[in-house]
Amino acid sequence: MKKLLLALAALTAFGFASAQTLTVWVWDINKPALESTIDSFQEMHPGVEVVVEDLGNQNVYDRGLAGCAAGGFDMPDVYLVENNEAEVFWAQFPDCFTDLTTLGGEELLPLFPDFKWSELTAGDAIYAVPFDSGPTAMFYRRDLYEQAGVDATAIETWDDYIAAGVAINETFDGNVKVGMMGKGSDDEWFRMLANQAGCFYFDQAATEVTVNQPGCVQAMETMKDVWDSGAIRAGGWVEQIQSFQNDELASAFFGSWYTGTIQAEAPDQAGQWGVYLTPAFEEGGVRASNLGGSALAIPASSDNPELAYDFVVNALADEDNQLNILNNYGLTPSLLSLGNAPELSEGVDYWGGQAIWEDILGTLGDVPAVSGTRYFQEARNVMIVVVNDYLDGNYDSAQAALDDAASQIAASTGLPVAD
Amino acid sequence: MSSQAHASPPTTRRRRSTGRRLAPYFFVAPFFLLFAIFWVYPIAYSFVLSFINTRQRPWTFDWDFNWGRLIQDDFFWNALGNTMIILAVQVPLMLALATLLAVAFNSELLKLKGFYRFAFFAPLVLGAVPYSAVFRLVFNEQYGVLNYALESIGLGAVPWLYESTPALITIMIAMTWRWTGYNAVILLSGLQSIPLALYEAARIDGAGPFQQFFKITIPMLRPVLLFTFVLSTIGTLQLFTEPWLITTTGPGNATETLVTYLYKQGFRSFNFGYASAIAYTVALIAVIFSLLQIRLVGGREVER
Known about the structure:
Chain A is an alpha/beta fold. Chain A has helices at residues 2-17, 30-35, 38-44, 57-69, 87-92, 114-117, 142-147, 158-171, 188-196, 214-228, 237-245, 258-265, 305-316, 319-329, 356-361, 376-391, 398-413; strands at 21-26, 49-54, 78-82, 121-122, 125-126, 128-141, 179-181, 232-234, 251-255, 273-277, 290-297, 332-333. In chain A, 42% of the residues lie in helices and 15% in strands. Chain B has a two-stranded antiparallel sheet with strand order 1-2.
């Protein structure tokens, strides 16, 4: 009883406080990006406050799941979710988020590509609106490459990348590395390369474990070649930022959203950065893949779902806002109507005048489509370990490592390993 | 009220005594109510959960689904192994260090005792998150002060956070830094309860400082040592903060502990049933270890 009363008191208090305030939970560069849309939102809804909070990527996920498990307590009005992690929410807590069709969400369906919707809908319900995509590319320091005598435009394959790394290693006495890999802390490199090779943890329908298929094997072997060359360093998100700030990292391999992070964390390196496409496995091969990309959802516990919906639509489906977010924060829009926007072919000063968006967005069509599943985290936990052990030489071959990974993922998800 | 009491004293007295008998229960009721809701219920419910397949909805009863997986799960055995290595290496080292510190704190030769006692106890006052952040910086491979120091005396840099064994050592160093002072203070209180007459008698009999230490201090300290041992064991079995914040349980799962694995299963994958099975395993191991330690170390205490 006491507990109930307390909860009621807390709820009414929240209700009064948030009557005209929208809270948004995001991570990193998404905060200033979404904040830039508040003015245009307030033109529609004067007097409504919007508070965008940066909790950090993992924390948003952790607190969101905890909030859903607690029946929707302590949730924001708008919630940012990574596409490939999204399905666990709809599967485990179908009532935690507002079905956007109740707010007229069907109108959004034709505005975004189909592959972006696959993870955000369940049956007829729409649970989130696509925000950015994460086509991968190699972001490099023109000055450092030049000093090492490496021509970035000539890099076409991973072997070329390794050769560049070795040259950089020699020029800078090992102090500058060509890249950084979250070895043992994340498996992003594996996911980017596997995607490039058309492989993923699971098959499209998410009914089988496919992580030991040939494409993934190729990804693993390439990673090992890169790692064994000694031209690349281990480090996580924070270490990578420290490294490029200290001029000790010549390039970074990530989704296009990383451009925003580089611009924000190293404003003094303007003009020194450039972009080249993801190296291919062999000459003429695919030079595209995708990492990340996120979407905005509206928790069912929101007191102002209509306001929240208007905020989301204004931020994500408005061309001006999306172009502005792209130009200033480097987040790649998913909005289809922007595909031919002339602004995209303009050179960007920070990137040495290169028309980076034309280059990066040009790869989107080549990205092999994969679907995340609600078992994404289980599989990722296994792969972080297996990739690390494989790079340390604890497996005889990439195939052996991935066979082991497949059986562990199968054991923890209950899904069978594909033949 | 008082006039009524005068009018019929016997009834009132009886009534008052009934009230008196019941009153304490009302006073303790809030605690037991909260205890029942927040302790007894979750403990019982998680036991039930450990027999339920919670991997997807709807949840179904399946008595060996989680327990069967536990036995075959390499990740669980790895987490158990890591926890046991820390238990076997870090806890004895830390307690030995704490004992020496306590003896030093107790020594008449030491000036500024209060300052040193505070200095060694201070790590515990610091929040776990800032302390972990600082350790991450100290152990950073490229920019960390520790590697800088190692290199400046001619030793190579160690990839503290990116290789398995160094990462586990990092965790142990961090735990030792945080908990040695705490244990030393507990042991110090034990030392101070040893009668000085024993040392005096020993000195008269010609015992040197080492003999005094091993023949008087250690045996007399046995019950307090046991207490710190049991406490540290349970603390290690519940180890979460350091691997979670300093090494993020990596590289790979090299610093995964039972409780970080439990957390991942419960709150990353939302598999409450499996997490509950792990939780009960941790509790069971803690009980077994405590009983063993009391048997082995505390045996003589019982005789006395």
